[in-house]
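REQUEST ID: PR-0412
SUBMITTED BY: lab tech R.K.
PRIORITY: routine
TASK: structure prediction, single protein chain
INPUT:
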Amino acid sequence: MSRRSLLLTGATVMGTVGLSIGLSGCEADPVQPTQPPEPVIEPLTPLLLSQRELIAQYQEAVTAFPELAVTLSPLQTQSAAHTDALLAAAPAAAAQVAAGGVAQSPSGSSTQPSAPAPPSASAPPSASAPPTASPLPPADAVTAVLELAQAVGTAAGSLRAAALQTEGDLAALLGSCSASTACHARLLT
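STATUS: complete
OUTPUT:
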């Protein structure tokens, strides 16, 4: 073998070894499965869900004590109108409410369940909002109204807090709904 061939072979071998060592440092770590992102819950979704629960609570009181219908039905209708307006103004939150909130798929990714959208909040509340599981119905109409007044007061506070954290037209809408709901609480006490 000539000196030139020997040097050329040696250089080729060294180049190959150097290249393989260099490339081994560039190898990627074994692929680790990435953690799925946490589902993003729109800020107004819990508020809208609680509004639907409030509408259901109105309906429960009217159903249990029909004599309250004259007093409660207009307030229930107004609360349903507030909820409809908020659903229209916050489409991303409305989609989550329609789907029952944010769910995780079996693969772990955030998805919206394929549930039919519930009727609008202006429909009879028993159809638009699932009844909340009350431990026991109120013993009398006075207790029902007092419990409803407390729930309405809480809703007014939640609407006010949301209005203070929001900007623009949505803040104005939330503030208006809050003021109206606060009036409902006063009417019930």
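NOTES: The radius of gyration is 31 Å.
REVIEWED BY: pending
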